[in-house]
Design brief:
Layout lengths: L4 H11 L9 E2 L1 E2 L5 E3 L3 E2 L15 E2 L1 H22 L8 H14 L1 H4 L3 H9 L2 H9 L2 H5 L10 H11 L6
Antiparallel strand pairs: 1-5, 2-3, 3-4
Enzyme class: hydrolase
GO molecular function: lysozyme activity
Keywords: Antimicrobial, Bacteriolytic enzyme, Glycosidase, Hydrolase
Length: 166
């Protein structure tokens, strides 16, 4: 999945990045006040071994891509450890869970008990509805029908099993 171009395009769009005029990724404090670089890599929780970065320090695109793929792989490992049934989902639905895990972390994702239950039993319509009724949905978008709404896009993708906005 970490090499799936549809998924990579989607998660990069959802995570966004800050670049300087030279096109280098700049370390910054995200809305949760975490030191972040590249495509949503949390340096406070996951420092880069052998590299000490502070605000306004930079990395290149290749380094940002490597961090992204490592973070995605970590999410996949977390999902394999905690939700063994997730591997039965199609690629678009797997991408939703990886995306949510990437954004929330596995601990917070696991608090979506009803949503995860509905996904596990194949009631994707109800799972999508639960996703949209969560606090998370209000934190990662600008409202239903808005220009950018990560939760709405992922809920539609979960319900339909088809890639959205890629």
């Amino acid at each position: 999945m970490y090499n799936n171009p549809l998924f990579l395009k989607q998660i990069k769009r959802h995570e966004g990045c800050k670049k300087n005029k030279d096109g280098l990724h700049v370390a910054y404090r995200c809305t949760a006040k975490k030191l972040t670089i590249g495509y949503g890599h949390n340096l406070d929780a996951n420092p880069i071994p052998g590299l000490i970065l502070k605000e306004k320090d930079t990395i290149n695109e290749e380094q940002a891509e490597r961090l992204l793929k490592a973070d995605i792989l970590a999410c996949i490992q977390d999902l394999n450890s905690h939700l063994s049934w997730w591997i039965t989902l199609n690629e678009a639905r797997k991408a939703v869970l990886i995306n949510m895990c990437f954004n929330l972390g596995i601990t917070k994702l696991l608090t979506f008990k009803k949503t995860l239950h509905f996904i596990r039993i194949g009631n994707y319509k109800q799972a999508a509805k639960n996703m949209m009724c969560s606090l998370w949905s209000k934190q990662v978008g600008d409202g239903i029908g808005g220009y950018f709404d990560r939760a709405e896009e992922l809920a539609k993708q979960m319900q339909s099993g088809k890639w959205q906005e890629v």
